[in-house]
Amino acid sequence: MRKTSEAWQGFDGMVHEPARLVILEALYQQELNFSEIREYIINKHGLLLTDGNLASHLLKLEKARYISADRHYEGRKPTTRYTISDDGKKAFEEYLNGTSEVIKMALKLITKPAQ
Prior knowledge:
Strand 2 (67-74) and strand 3 form a beta hairpin. By secondary structure, the chain is α+β, with helices and mostly antiparallel strands. The chain has a single domain, classed as Arc Repressor Mutant, subunit A (Orthogonal Bundle), CATH 1.10.10. Helix 2 (18-27) crosses helix 3. The protein is elongated and about 70 Å long. It has five helices and three strands.
C-alpha cells in the first residue's frame, strides 16, 4: 500500500472544490469568457456564485496554471477568454478517474449482499 498525503489517488484539492471542478468541466472542451462560464455554471449545475467569487476561483486556477486567461479588447470593451491548460486537463482527468474508483469501491460496500 502506498503512503500519500492525498485523500485518494488523483485527489487534488484545487480541483476538489465544487466551483473549480465545474469551471474546469466548462473549459475542458472549449474556450469561454467570464459570462459564458457563469451561464454554464448556473444552467448546467444550478450553482450560484457572485461575480467576485467566480473571479476568485478563476484566479486560483490561473495561479495553479490549470487555466490561462487571454485578456484583450473587443472593440473598446475589455474581455477575457479562459482556456484549460494541459496541466489543468491532466489534473481534471486524474481527479475524475481517482474519484470514480473511490465511488466504485464504496458502492461495492453498500451493495454487498447481506449474510
